[in-house]
Amino acid sequence: GINAEYGCGELSITKDDTLILHGKGARSAVNARVEQILDELAESKSEYEKEKLNERLAKLSDGVAVVKVGGSSEVEVSEKKDRIQDALCSTRAAVEEGVVVGGGTALLRCSAAVEALTLANTGKGD
What we know:
Layout: E1 8-13, E2 18-23, H1 27-43, H2 47-60, H3 74-97, H4 105-115
Antiparallel strand pairs: 1-2
Helix pairs in contact: 1-2
């Protein structure tokens, strides 16, 4: 049975998914579970296990996104899903590896430091 101290604001169960919104559990318990998953992630050597642990972390975090894809044909829907999947993979990789701010902002921010550098060899072909 479900413990009386837990609950949720909204619960939706379908054949494929279970969606729990506005959980009423203790935030400290959720944070403790997040720390436990992070420890397991650090110790894991299996890529499959790491992927599943990252999915659990995402589900426990405050941010949730549902992307619904539609199109005029099955081929168009499939293509859009592939593009979204590619974008998600790119975003995950950027988060894991670290991201340098794009659009030239990083260059702009470091340009003053680069201009202040004194180069030892400024001649060409010397």
